[in-house]
Structure to design on (107 residues):
């Protein structure tokens, strides 16, 4: 999965099951996405991998927080079901990436 960014579309993060998580199309989310991409720009090798893990962990943590809010406040059960899936999958991925950070970079 990747990011699709243009002036008319909210950021989209493809989930492992093929569904998409759409970010809110406002300056905060857009600015955060731009900052994440800038953090990766011009990097390669270990420098890229360190930056990728750091930025992706923060991105996933944000998704988990949004999903937790959805469990409390969403009207539709479909959103609550998706929120549970996001929390489960992204918490697992956060742990995996944190394990790589520790194993590879002692962080």
């Amino acid at each position: 999965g990747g990011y699709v960014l243009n002036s008319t579309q909210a950021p989209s993060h493809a989930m492992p099951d093929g569904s998409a998580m759409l970010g809110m199309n406002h300056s905060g989310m857009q600015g955060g996405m731009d900052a994440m991409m800038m953090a990766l720009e011009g990097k390669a090798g270990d420098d890229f991998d360190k930056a990728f893990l750091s930025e992706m962990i923060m991105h996933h943590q944000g998704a988990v927080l949004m999903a937790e809010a959805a469990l409390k406040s969403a009207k539709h059960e479909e959103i609550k079901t998706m929120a549970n899936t996001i929390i489960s999958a992204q918490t697992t991925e956060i742990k995996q990436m944190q394990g790589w950070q520790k194993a590879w970079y002692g962080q």
